[in-house]
Design goal:
The complex is a heterodimer of chains A (295) and B (292). Chain A is mainly alpha-helical and 295 residues long. Chain A has a single domain, classed as Orthogonal Bundle (MetI-like fold). Helices cover 73% and strands 1% of the residues of chain A. Chain A has 13 helices and 2 strands; from the N terminus they run H-E-E-H-H-H-H-H-H-H-H-H-H-H-H. In chain A, helix 3 runs antiparallel to helix 4 and helix 3 crosses helix 7. Chain A is globular. The N and C termini of chain A lie far apart (51 Å). Chain B is mainly alpha-helical and 292 residues long. Chain B folds into 2 domains: 68 residues, no CATH class; 210 residues, MetI-like fold (Orthogonal Bundle), CATH 1.10.3720. Chain B is 73% helix and 0% strand. Classes of the chains: A mainly alpha (295), B mainly alpha (292). At the A-B interface, helix 1, helix 3, helix 4, helix 5 and helix 6 of A face helix 1, helix 2, helix 4, helix 5 and helix 6 of B.
């Protein structure tokens, strides 16, 4: 049976694995069970089968949140990565001190906690007296309600999001660029390739794994977006999502159902629906990557 | 517009002129981006360090104008709100989380990286799979479990559920794999116990990885908004993030400069950390990304 010599090994891994089992594996299993029960604060729990799932999927907030999420991801991920890639190229074109300097400066927004970035931007977006509207005023443009006009709200969120995340992705892309062997560029230059050609035919293909990682990670975290839209809108369990729910996202909706309406069964079901979406999207991305590798 | 450095280099006569246009352009873009990156932070500082009464956003200035006004605002916040207490909570929360993540993570990583024992492979696989599970699915059940344990509004409720960091474990394993087995064998022959090998060889040799993980954990804990929000809703347990959230609430009736003073106080620890450890932070993120 258990060999005595293995005891010290198991003792050393035990604290981590015990915490992991209790605070990670058990919640997943219990969440799955909760998602089949009705759990209002007033009633005792009772088994309702798939009713929670149906209620979530057929609710108007759910379709609104999913629609918002789709429009958000389709813009924020590609634009964010394009910006990060350009920043990485820009930083890479500097040498020595200035390279480190600009890398650090561009990275600065990442260091700020998300809740701070959102709060600062909320004030920058303020109608009439906010910084952006003051600048618009200088050019004689009318004040825009960036966070209260359904046609601009999503873009206001995406701007904050890219401001926060570009530096993070840039650092990862830069690390990838450092791994591209110098002689590839030298050979291309001897063949008379232009800078643009170098980027298209060497940098981007060689960065493929890194760009894949950044995209996958970006999509997975974008699917779970919470802090920024929460703080840019009402930021309380009774008021969130902003005007006409234009900034309502699934995790916010889930939190609202759980802690605002105390419908924990629905919230748990919501979590599993969201997880299914995240896992499927990730699986599709990995499948596409495999396909992309074949000539 | 030619950004065509390759061709420019071969066209000798125009070399100096074109290259300087390219250089000027490059610097202009870099400086503009730098301004966009730091401007909100600088603006926050300016709003705080300005005479009260004049809304700074109406009259944007480039430099802070009044040191004493800023200090007065910070004093107001520290004395009239629970900010100092929130600072204490946030710092305790961060330090305990760092200590736990490093201790339990390094103990487990030591075993997973360097030894064979029954059940190692399946255990490792499950922990690694968990890196793909989104927080959305565990958030509410973990909250309910914490509530059932009677840990709402307690420090252990904040800290303990976050200690089994699969990311931290993964990072430390990657690092400890590089420790030479011969060193461990030699120590064992010298009569060192298993725990002594961990304490006196594995830990000192993975110092860099531990420091990086500590910094990343600090940033993450300090910036964690959602977990304190649900698990510690009582004002006695407010973290800095929650206090900032209160200032941010739509009917809080505070002026922008007071809000920004609150923000500035919350931003200081991570900004100072960044200035001190920027290389480690950037490398840590690059490492976790390129290995992912």
């Amino acid at each position: 049976m258990l060999d005595k010599k293995h005891v010290p090994h198991l003792l050393m891994v035990f604290p981590f694995l015990a915490l992991f089992a209790v605070f990670f594996l058990y919640p997943i299993v219990s969440g799955f069970v909760y998602s089949f029960y009705d759990w209002n604060a007033t009633t005792t729990s009772r088994f309702v089968g798939l009713a929670n799932y149906q209620r979530v999927i057929h609710s108007r907030d759910f379709s609104k949140a999913m629609w918002n999420l789709g429009s958000y991801i389709v813009i924020t991920v590609p634009v964010g990565i394009a910006v990060a890639f350009c920043l990485a190229l820009l930083v890479e074109s500097f040498k020595g001190f200035w390279q480190n300097f600009f890398r650090s400066i561009f990275f600065m927004p990442v260091v700020l906690p998300m809740f701070l970035a959102a709060t600062i931007w909320r004030w920058i977006y303020t109608p009439n007296i906010g910084l952006l509207n003051t600048i618009r005023g200088l050019f004689g443009l009318p004040s825009v309600q960036f966070l209260n006009d359904t046609s601009t709200m999503l873009y206001s969120l995406i701007a904050v999001d890219i401001w926060v995340s570009a530096g993070f992705n840039m650092v990862i892309i830069l690390a990838g660029m450092k791994n591209i062997p110098r002689h590839y560029y030298e050979a291309a230059r001897l063949d008379g390739a232009s800078k643009l050609q170098e980027i298209l035919y060497i940098t981007i293909p060689m960065l493929y794994p890194v760009l894949f990682f950044v995209t996958t990670y970006g999509v997975i975290s974008a699917l779970q977006v919470f802090d920024t839209p929460w703080l840019l809108t009402g930021s309380s369990f009774s008021q969130y999502g902003g005007r006409q729910n234009a900034l309502l996202f699934p995790v916010m909706d889930m939190m609202g159902r759980g802690f605002g309406e105390l419908k924990f069964g629905q919230a748990a079901a919501y979590g599993f629906i969201l997880t299914t979406v995240i896992v499927s999207v990730t699986a599709v991305m990995f499948a596409l990557r495999k396909k992309g590798h074949q000539p | 517009m030619t950004t065509d450095v390759g061709l420019i280099r071969s066209a000798a006569p125009n070399y100096a002129l074109d290259l300087s246009i390219w250089t000027v352009l490059k610097w202009t873009v870099a400086i503009c981006v730098a301004i966009v990156a730091v401007f909100p932070i600088v603006w926050m500082v300016n709003v705080v360090f300005a005479e009260p009464g004049v809304p700074v956003s109406i009259n944007p200035r480039l430099l802070p104008t009044s040191l004493s006004a800023g200090i007065a605002k910070i004093n107001t916040i520290l004395s009239e709100t629970g900010y100092l207490h929130a600072y204490y909570i946030s710092i305790t929360y961060s330090l305990l989380t760092i200590a736990g993540v490093l201790l339990f993570g390094s103990m487990a990583a030591f075993e997973f990286a360097l030894f064979e024992f029954p059940g190692k492979r399946p255990m490792f696989a499950i922990v690694m799979l968990s890196l793909m599970v989104p927080t959305a699915v565990t958030l509410i059940p973990t909250y309910l479990l914490t509530a059932n344990l009677g840990w709402l509004n307690t420090m252990q409720g904040l800290v303990v559920p976050g200690l089994a960091s699969a990311f931290g474990l993964f990072m430390l394993i990657q690092f400890m794999r590089t420790i030479p087995r011969e060193m461990i064998e030699a120590a064992r022959l010298d009569g060192a116990s298993h725990f002594q090998i961990y304490r006196h060889i594995a830990l000192p040799m993975s110092r860099n990885a531990l420091v990086t993980l500590a910094i990343l954990t600090f940033m993450q804990t300090w910036g964690n908004f959602i977990w304190p929000l649900i698990v510690a809703p009582s004002p006695q347990m407010y973290t800095v993030g929650q206090v900032v959230g209160l200032f941010n609430a739509p009917f809080s009736h505070v002026t922008v400069d007071i809000v920004m003073a609150a923000n500035l106080l919350a931003a200081l620890p991570p900004l100072i950390f960044f200035l001190l450890f920027q290389r480690k932070i950037v490398e840590g993120i690059a490492m976790s990304g390129s290995k992912g």
